[in-house]
Structure formats: structure tokens, C-alpha cells
Amino acid sequence: LAAALKRTKIQWYPIPVGLGIGFLGLLQFYKVREREGQRSIEGGSFPAGDEDQPPKRRKIRPSGPWQVQIMSTLPLKAVSRLWGWFNGLEIPYYLRVPGFRLYSWIFGVNLSEVSEPDLHVYPNLASFFYRTLKPGVRPLDPDHNALLSPADGRILQYGMIQEGEVEQVKGMTYSLDGLLGQKPPGESEHDSVPGAPKQSNSRSRHGEEELIKADEEFARLNGISYTLPNMFSGPQKAGQPTESVDASMEATNSAVAEVRADLALGDTSSHWYAPYDAKPHHALYFVVVYLAPGDYHRFHSPCSWVAERRRHFAGELYSVSPYLQRTLPGLFTLNERVVLLGRWRWGFFSFTPVGATNVGSIVINFDRELRTNSLLTDTAADRAAAEAAKRGEPYSGFSEATYAPASRVLGGHALTRGEEMGGFQLG
Amino acid sequence: STVVLVFEAPKGKRRSFDEGWQGGERKGGWRWAVEQGQKVKVGQALGYV
Questions:
Q1: What's the pLDDT tens digit per position in A182-227?
Q2: For B40, which of A155, A176, A350 is closest by C-beta distance?
Q3: How far apart are CA A367 and CA A336, in angstroms?
Q4: B27 C-beta neighbours (distance < 10 Å), count
Q5: Residues A304, A415: Cα–Cα separation, whole Å
Q6: How far is B17 from chain A (nearest CA, A)?
Q7: Cβ contacts (< 8 Å) between B10 and chain A: which residues?
Q8: How many CA atoms lie within 13 A of A382 on its CB side?
Q9: Is the ipTM of this complex over 0.85?
Q10: For residue A385, which phi and psi values (nearest 5 degrees)?
Q11: Per-residue pLDDT tens digits for A51-69
């Protein structure tokens, strides 16, 4: 080989100009074709001459560095399910304690807070991961005007929403519609109850005044210091601890409903519900809490609020690590997530747990119908997402459910501050 | 895993100059009690109205 290389004569020839022009032309042709194809996917015009043809659908891969590109080629949901199955395998009894201690050492789990002092109780990593904590180790902020942290974790981003745009991390933004789905109709589901009066804006304002009167009437009848905004922060009876009163919130609200019925007010609760549109002198705010693998993975209600509807977006399961949040634009709008929409004392409120590759299963305690990242019991959203994937299309839809009103006043599932709502499970 | 909260809260009223207005500071509105990157625990206040 060395002799052949040494003895072979190298002779250089100029490339014909026509060949070079042809190559550049071909390159340009492919570039234009790709650009036009992309435009047709995004709903723009089709390439010239292709008006009668259906647009060529291709799977849109997220933009980003090579790590993101590689990740986008992986079957992340299948990986997540496999990870969940693996972590559900029972660990031999004598390996449990050293295994969990090693895990705790690596990911910084504070074992003194775990409710079960004997780690042998956890048969596998999945059950240890979804552990509970000892009562009292997470005291709630005593100020009822505070919004509490829903989970242990790190604040990745927070701020005010400007013109419907949520900033992800450092300048990357996505629309509120993309994250939560399109704005629901102006009136909530419980307004369509036969016989319930439809509310106009002026009627709603009028209803609010009436509701305040009813509220005062209720307070007068029951001797409770109870104002309209306090309904969502927990009514407080004079001289009684807040916790015991919070526990009877449901009964109290039923009582409010009775008073309202006595005063023939009808259902006026919809006037609080103004999703994505803040009232005058109000604004929409957002906060992103990231849970690291070693954190307690159950989440709690950050305030007293009413969850009216649930939207399940069966998206992908990319990692939600801070690195990927910086590098993958619109990560939260791509991943599988459960959006709980409702209201609190100041208006619109939403709670969105976003799944990740290692924790694809989102559990909502009061929603037994919800199945996330489940192969055996695919939900309608999963099926729609799978069909969209077969066609090579992105799936941006969701399946929606409304929570049955506990009372005509609340119109949804009531949650008290600090109440456990659900959690993230492995796989 | 991540939890995203989006909520409505009052902005509060802008303080007048006589009340000691300090460049956009508002009274009675929403104010954050956390910093970016801060570790938080369940039940800890993220902010106050």
C-alpha cells in the first residue's frame, strides 16, 4: 500500500464550471423544497404546483443541540415505562437498606424525615421514591395570604405573564395556550345545569354583590367571621385553630349554598372564572418548581382553591432537568402533563404537574379516571397522541374532564391549603 | 418532574410619591418571597398577597 501510494502519480484537473453550478443548484433546490415543506406543515401555503396535493407530513423534531436531537429520536415513553417496570421489581430483603441508603446518599434524601423508619418496608425503589413524610416535618406558612410551595424542589423561574407568554428559562417563552390549552368557554361546566341561570358580565357583577350579601347573612346567622375571599383561604371561627375549621370547609360551603338558595341567588360562582384574562388591577403570575430525583415526590395544594377541570396532554417525556429546560424551547408544551384549571380567592388558578422520562406517571388523588404514561390502560389522549404519531404529526390536543361540583357554590373539587393532591411515580 | 403554577393575583396600587414611591413598588398586591434557584419545601411561602 505504501509503495502504491508513493509511486502513483497524482494529476490535478479543474472541475468543470457546469458541474459546480449544477451542484449548487441542486443544493438550493433541496433547501427551498425543505423550507416549503416546513411551511406547509405549519399551515402555510403549499409549494407551487402542489395545491391539489395533501401537504407532506413529517415528524417535527424539536430544535436544539445534538443531545436534544438524539433524545428526540428515542422512544421516551417506552423507555419511561421500562424504567417504571424495572423499579417495580422487588429488591431482596437484605439489599433494601444499603440500596436505599446509597440512593439517599447520592441524591440527598433526608432519611430522618421519612415516615417509615424501617427501610425494609419499601419493597422496591418505586415505593421508596413515592414515600410519605413524618407528620409535622413540613409546617405550613401561618399566613393565609401566602401561596405555598406545592412540592419540595428548586425555583427554576417565576414572574409575571406578559401578553400570554410564559418565560421558560432565560428568554425562552411559550404561550399560555400552548401550556394550558386553549381558553375554556367563559362559563364553567356547572353553569349548564338545567335550570341554572346563564350569567352575563353585568349579571355576574350583580351576582357578586348579592353573594357578598349572602356571605354576610351567613356570617350573621352562624356567628362566623367569614368573608367572601376567606372562602378560599379557609373560614376562621374566632378562638378556634385554623386546621380544625379547614377540615369542615366542605360542610361550611354547603351551608353557604343553603343560604344562597334561601336568598334565591342562583349560581353566581362563574363570575370568578376568567381564565387567562386577569381582572382590572390583577395580573397573571407563574412559578416553576423543579423536583430533583431525591426530593419528596408528592405535591400538595398551594392554597385553598377549587379545581374545576382537568386536561391531560399526552405528549412526550423529555427530561425536565434545568439543562434541558435551557436548551429545549417549549419543553413544557411538549411533555406529558396534567393541567388542573380552577380558581382561588383572587381569580384564575392552575396547577400543572409536568412528567419527565424517569417520572412519567402523574397521580391525582381525587381523579381515579386519570391514567398517565400507561400502556395497558391508554386514555383517549394517549390514543389520539399515538394516532398522531403514526401519521407523523405533532399532537397538541388534550382530553378534558370536569370535576363534579361538590356544591353549587364551589362548582368543582375543593382543595384546602397544604392538602396532598397527588404525586409523581417512577416510570 | 416539575410543577408549574399559573395564577391570578392583584397587582396592588402603585404608591404615590408622597407615600414613598420607590420605582414601581406597589402596595397590597402580589409579592414574591422566593428567589430564582432557591430550594423550597412543601408549605413554604412562595409569595404573599
A1: 766 654 433 333 333 333 333 344 444 544 554 454 444 444 333 3
A2: A155
A3: 17
A4: 12
A5: 5
A6: 19
A7: 281-283, 346
A8: 15
A9: no
A10: -65, -40
A11: 444 444 444 556 667 777 7
Structure confidence by residue, pLDDT tens digits, A123-138:
999 999 999 999 989 9
Chain A residue numbers with beta carbons less than 8 Å from the beta carbon of B4 are 179, 286-289, 332, 352, 354
The minimum CA-CA distance between A374 and chain B, rounded to whole Å, is: 17
Distance spanning both ends of chain B, measured CA to CA: 27
Rounded mean pLDDT of A335-361? 88
Most confidently modeled range among A102-116, A275-289, A404-418 = A102-116
CB within 8 Å: A148 and B7: no
Which of B12, B32, B42 is opposite residue A138, by nearest beta carbon?
Answer: B42
Report the candidate in A296, A269, A246 with the shortest Cα–Cα distance to residue A199: A269
Nearest to A305 by CA among A344, A262, A274, A248: A344
> Which residues of chain B lie closer than 8 angstroms to A157, CB-CB?
36
Contact B4 A354 (CB under 8 A): yes
Instruction: Check: CB of residue A256 under 8 Å from CB of residue A186.
Output: no
Quote the minimal CA–CA distance from A389 to chain B in Å. Answer: 23
Rounded Cα distance between A162 and A253, Å, is 35
Report the alpha-carbon distance of residue A296 to residue A292 in Å, rounded.
Answer: 9
**Closest alpha carbon within chain A to B4:** A288
Using DSSP's 3-state secondary structure scheme, residue B17 falls into: coil
Residue position matching grid coordinates 425562552: A172
10 Å CB burial of residue A26 (0-12, 13-18, 19+) is exposed
